[in-house]
Each structure stands twice: as structure tokens, then as C-alpha cells.
Structure prediction request, 1002 residues.
Amino acid sequence: MKEYLNNGRLWRLCLKELRESLRDRRTIITLVLMPILVYPLLSMALQRLIVGGISKAEPEYAFLLGTQDEETAQRVQNLLFEARRVNQIGISSPIKITRSDEPSNKSTVRSEDNNNAIAVSADHVGFSIVIVEKVSLASALRDAQIDLAISKLDVESMAFERDTFPSYQVQVEFRQGDLRSESAMSELRRAVQLMNDNQFEIVRQRINARLPAVVQMKANGVGQRLDPAASIAGVIPLVLILMTITGAVYPAIDLTAGERERGTMEALIATPAPRFALLLSKYVAVVVVAILTALANLFATWITLSFGGLGQAIFGKQGFSLWILIQILPLLAIFAAFFSAILLALCSFARSFKEAQAYLIPVMLLSLGPGLVTLMPNVQFTTLLGIVPLVNILLLSRDIMTGHSELVPAFAAVFSTIIYAGATLVVASRLFGAEAATSGSQETWAELLGRPKKTRLLPTLGELAIFLAILFPVFFITSNVGVMLELRGEAAMSFNAVLLVILFMCLPSAYAWYRRLDFPTTFRFKSSSNSLDSTGMQVARSIGFVVSVLLLSSGLWMVAFETYLLFENWSLASHLSEEERTKLKDTFLLIPFWLVLLTGAVVPAVAEEFFFRGFALSAFRSKLAPFRSVLCTSILFGLFHVISGNILSIEKFLPTIILGLALGLVAIKTNSLWPGILLHALHNGLVFGMSRIGETELTKWFGADTKHLPMLWLVGGGLSIMAGITLLLIASRQTRTYENIA
Amino acid sequence: MISATNLTKQFNVRGTPLIAVNNLSFKVSNGEVYGLLGPNGAGKTTTLRMVMGLLEPDSGHVEICGMRSDGQTTEMRKHIGLISTNDGVYPWLTVREMLLYFADLYAVDLQVARERLEELARLLDIGRFLDQRCSTLSTGQKQRVTLARGLMHDPPVMLLDEPTRGLDVVGSQTVFRFIDLLKERGKSVLLSTHRLDEAERVCDRFGLLHRGNLQFEGTLEELQKLTGKQHLVDIFIGLIGGPVDGEPVDPARMVITTNE
Prediction:
């Protein structure tokens, strides 16, 4: 594999695939022509939909009030005049007519709408009054020639004290579900309310203001205004994503199934080049073409939205800004990376162009389903949806476009999409060329997902990737279940401990059993000594390991403590009030200490070591050098600690990685799981132990600064870590020499 | 050199086991052309795939220049060249790009690959169109490019899978000259074909394969002596004793160009 990564060879392999796809006219057509053709068409369609919808909500011309006769029209006109007058004198009413002082224009009448059945009489308060002749009021309303129909208007005079007041009974009809008609209705309601409020004010003054209003209400709108445009903003990511897929489809088929059709497949897989390198270069080419397509499409969208006036209609005054563009692009790139892997996996399985297309069509249709879900205006981008492929990226880009994106689901979306892409790529590299090699046998899928026939010592990196793709969603869902159950104190800790055992012990064991992996080597169950050692040597070595672990743990908890403080402001706890924090601490102190130790130190130590330093480290070691394997394992270890329930605990990342590095070093040097378990348990136990100690006692030890550890402690801790590492290296030296000889 | 020992491979075809290759052993020394002969479905391609390390034998192993198929497949493949009937070219790449691509796949140093490309261009007369896209080449030109492709990593072992199928007389002649070239350079050549007349012309030794079993192995003289028949075609029909896979043998299918 190495010789394919050096001397720019991998780069040249990628270059070949890129040349092949970019020189192909068909790629260029999907890349350039499609956006040019599709967007203007789409823009025209959307223009009708969106701009139409929005102008209905906030009309540029007055609402049309239809009446049947001149008399009614006159009365309505008088009423509207009155409403306007009341609005202008400004009575103490919560109601304001929004459009009262706008000049209305007689000439805006749509007299051409109907063969002069409608004639305008007058207009007031944003309304134009129309007398409907020839046709019935109901049909004029139904045909949207008028917005409201005044079907009945009676007036009677009522005597009150010395005066008489007119009282109107009005019956109005409107089109239900029609935005414009409903807006007109509520506008009219406001006008009526205003006049009634005015009447009330007059009466109140007559009785020397002795009668208060029943309710004095002031309304403040909070949160997101449910804009009809918001749901339409969801269309844009969907279109962009579909177009990105379209860009990736052709190269994906051409570079995989196409190799078979050209007859180059056999020559290709007969070479010693690793399948993964072959597929990686193809993958790079597909992703590049997909990203280029995304860029072309994004640019076309931007042009259409900016210059077609659609952008302002959807995104408000600032339009479709460059900032949105910059945020959407990496998202599209991640999505392209994910979908390209899926396409390659599917196409690698196909034997011909036709077969590949047959596989792809259902996938494209299936991906439309979640796409449509995101179009519904009330779908919230929750953390749980963050791990659903496709939906997560769609919702995230919708939220970015409307400016409401949140960190946790965004992180979950990006992280899980990358994991899925990696796992799919591994699958694809196994499938690629498999059919050509095995000549019609059906071993390919079985080989990949079924049980292997032979027992193997170590898991491969591919197996880890596939396992992670299973583990991550399960981990995510189950840790959210804990949050949903609202467990507290003992129950929460026990629940987490059970989860750890299931996720990091039962699942990996089941997977390892299924894949026929050798348990002792995969999970490092071996004793820490070398079989060539004498008994005395074995004992000495074991003592050395235990002492070094004790030294390491006595220093490491301080490192964890201080690195945690560095990022403390990022933690959720820092947002809690003093009271809430005390309450949390009280709940914690109520849990018996043995249970804290069991669920917080012993179980996590055993379970996490089992998976991370057992399974994961073994898988990384199958391909990578020791230090890189330890580093990769630690990063994985850190990432899994960042996600706890639906909270993103970024503050845990660095301390966990440091602990992971130490644990990895111990596991590699002792070639055993047990010293690591001891170190992990001691470390967690010490951290929890410290948190049990009351503030008064802490002051006794720490002095005035109860937040940070005393300098002397830190120096001591640092020294004991160094001593621990030195002892670890010395105690493991002999083992390595034996290994080298062997 | 190639050495195959007790190769056996069984496939499952719709649930029923089918032995494609049964306990097959042969050796090809340096500078020798070994013909693996047999009708369609005799197990030739399966054998070649096992020799290449593309297919794992159920039992037995292959050794190429001291490397064994069970464990050193990747190393082994670097020493094998493969040219087969269905070989295609990349239409959008130039001849030079395609040949250098394959050199990269065999992890050949770029400088070495460039020099070898010039040499092969002379030998196979492809220099004129090195920078032309493959889609513009004629069938004969494509064929020569394919032959050059097989030699880009200068393998000591060359596998030829029915290299003349679908070629005209001129094309076949190019292949024969190519095989002579390989012999000259001391390469071990394993040739699979059902064109017995051609095999007679280029092979030093033969292995006659029928239903996965090696029916006979030896030189043409040995075969003639054994059977008393002059032509390979007659010898072969005599040896397999009539119908293949229940179908009547169609001599025309196997002897298309005998009298040409």
C-alpha cells in the first residue's frame, strides 16, 4: 500500500480518473448545461409560486370589497371613512389599521377582469368598494374578482341617554384558505374593532371614566414568524442536493461499471494496486465532479436568486447573501462526499451501465422521500434527525438559509455523514471488481456482510468502519433515550452504566463473534507478560506495570481536572445558576459512593477499554503504525465523549483525548487490556472522589483558590506521570526484544 | 517461471457444485510458451485467474518466481503481465497517459516507466499515436497498445488469455510476433486458447484441458507419437472422445482457420 501513497502516485491515479471524467462530454453536459437550463425554468416556476404567494399576503393594491347595490356601497364607504377617522385621532385601542393612510388609487380597478360587471364606487382604508352587477356576489367572490363580499348590511338607530347611535349588522363572506381574502377579512375586522373601541371610549368618558376596559392587552410576538417563504427556502437545498447527485451519477457509473464495459476492468484488478487505492482515486474524481456540479449549481442559484428578484422574496431584504453561499458550499461538499460513496458502492456492484442505472433509480427516488419531509414547514431539526442521512444535511442547509442553525444537530449531521461516507467507501472498495474476480459466484455480499469461514486474529479497518456505522446511530439514539426518560441521580448513572456495557461490550463482542475474530488478540485479553519470560521475570514485569499505572493515574486526573477548567465556559453547567448547581451537586452527593465508583469508574473502565483499546486499537493497528493508531483511537474516544445525550460537551474533548493517549500507550506497551482498565478506573475514581469533597475541606487543602489545584500538586502530578511513563517503557522493553527476535 | 501444484476450484452454480478445475499441476520454465488448450468451459480462464491470484483455489497453490499465491498475492502480481481477449482501452485518455497509468498501478518508477514507454513504442510501432486519444485509434492500433500495456512493468511471466480471438490475419500475426518477442526475452508465457492450429504454431508444450482435468501434457512430437495423429485438432478430438458437455463437437468451431 505504501508505494501507492508515495511519489505522488496516488495523485497521478486520481488525475487519471479526473481526466477520464472531465474529458467526457457527457460529464460536461450534466455539469454545465443542466444548471444553465434548469435554473431559469425553475426560477420562472418559483417566481409564480413564491412571488404570487407573498404578494397575496401583503398586497400592493387595495382589497376589493364587493357589494350588490349602490346603497350598501355608500354605507360601507361611510363606515370605512369613520374607521379611518378613528384611526387617525388615535384612541387607546390595541388595534391599529395597518394600511389606513395609504393612498388608494381608483384606477387600479380590475375592470378588464370581467366584461364590465364590476364598477368601482369608492375606496377607503386600503379597501376599494366594488359594486358587482350581472353576476352574483357569491360567484364574484368565488372567482376571486373580489376579496370580500358584503352580503348583508342593515342599520338601525339605538337611543343611548340623549343621543341616538347607528348600529350596523354586517354579514361578510370570504374565501377560506385564500391568503389574500383572509388578510382582507382580518383587516376589515380590525376596522370594525376600532370603531367599537371608539364607541366604548365615548361611553366611558360619559360616565367619567369609571369603567375600566375588561382587558388591557399588549401583544408581543416572539420566536420565528411562520413565513410562507420559509418552507419554500427548503426547496432550494433540495434542488441543490438533487443537482449535486445528478453531477455525481454519471462519473460514478462511468468509472466503475464503465471499466467493465470498456474491458479495462480485468487488466485493472490484475494489477497489484490495492483495491482501496483504485477506488479512492475514483472516489476523489467523483467527489470533485460532484463538487464542481454543486459549485456550478450554487452559482446558478445565486445568480437566479440575486437577479431574478426571488432572493429578496425568500430571504428578506439582504437576499441570498454570499455568507449563506459560503456556509452552504462545505455542506454540499460533505453531502457530495457521502453520496458519491453510496453511488460508487452501488455502481461497483453493477456489471454494466444499464445495471448501474437500474440500481440508481430507486436510490434517487428513495432520497426524494426524506427530501420532501424537509419541505414541511413545521419539521424541527432535532438532534435525533441529525443522524438520519440525507435528511440531516437537508434540514441543516434549510436552517442555515433561514438563519436558525443550531450547533448540536449541525455537529451530529456533519460527523455522522462523514462516518457513513467512510463506511460506504470501505464497502465500495470491497465490491469493486469483486464480480470480475470471482466469476459469477455469489460470494461478494456474503463475504462482506456475512460470516467469514476462517477465524482471523485482528479486525480490519474496514470492519471498524462498518461497526462504527452501526454503533454510532445506536449510541446516539440510546443516549437520547436517557435524556427523554429524564432520569436523575442513581437511576441516570445506572442507566448509563448499562448502556456502556451494551454498546461497548455486547455489541463489539457480537460483531467480533459474527466476523469470527479471535477474542484474545482482538480485545487484548492476553496476560501482560511474555511467554518467554521466567516466572520471576513475569512477576517483576507485572509489578512494574501496576506501579507505572498507579503513578500515571495519580498525575493524570490532575491533567484532566485542569484541561477541563480551560474549556469550562463551554460546558452546559456554566450556564446554570448557582442554585441549580448546588441542587445538582446535592443530588450527586446523595448517591452512595460505592454506586458512583461502580457506575462511574469500574464499568466505564472495563467497557470503554474493551471497545476502544481492544477492538478499535486492534483495527487501527492492522493498517497503521503504533503511535498513529493510538492517536486515532484517542480522537475516536474523545468524539464519543463529546456527545452525551442531546448535549454537545465540547469541554470534555481535550481531557478525554489526553486520557486516551495515555491509555493507548499503556495498551500498546503492555499489549494487554488489564493495566489500561486499572488506569482508567483509578483515573475516573479519583476525579469522582474529588468532586465528592465539600468546599470547606477543599479550602483546607488547596488554600484560597479552590478552583485550581495548588502548584505543588501539579508539579508532583507531572513528575509522577513522567516516572510512570519511564517505568512503563522499562518494564515493557524486554517484551519488545523478544518480539523482534521472533 | 510458473509452477502450479494441485489446483482445484469448485463453483456453486444455482446450488449444484461444479468442479471447474480438478487437481491441475503444470510448470512453465523461462523462455517457454505453454499452451493451455481446451474447448469453451474447460477451465482455462479459471486456471489463469488462479495463476494471477484473482481467484483463491480451494486447494493447491501457484508459485511465480518463488512467490506463492497463498500469502504473497500482491508481490506475485507485480511479476505477471496479463493480456486477454476482451481488453479495452480508455477512450478519453491518450495512449501515453494510459500506459503510464498502468505503470503506476504496477508501482513502476515514473522515470523507468517513461524510458520503457519509448522502447515499447519502437518495438510495437505505436510511437506515431502516443499522444492521440485512444478513442481515435483503429482496432489494430488498439491491439498494439494493449500488448504494450502488458509489458509496461516488464514482467517475467506473461499470461495470454485467448489473445487472437476476434482478430484478423494481420492482428494474429502481430500477436505471434509479440509471443516471439516474449520468448526472446526469456519470459515464461502461459497461453490459453481454443484455436489449436495457432497453438501448434507458437507453443513449445501443451496441456490439454477437458472438464477441468488435464488430459495430456507434452510437446507436439510426444503427442503425435502417442496418438499417431498428425494434427492437434485430431489428437484433441481423439483424446476427449467425442461430445463436449453433452453437445456434439463441432469441428468447424475449433478448426476455423486450419486450411487458411
About this structure: Residues 2-79+157-254 of chain B form a domain with the Rossmann fold fold (CATH 3.40.50.300). Chain B has two domains: 2-79+157-254, 88-154. Chain B has a mean pLDDT of 84. Strands of chain B lie at 2-13, 16-28, 33-37, 59-64, 67-68, 80-84, 157-161, 188-193, 205-210, 213-218.
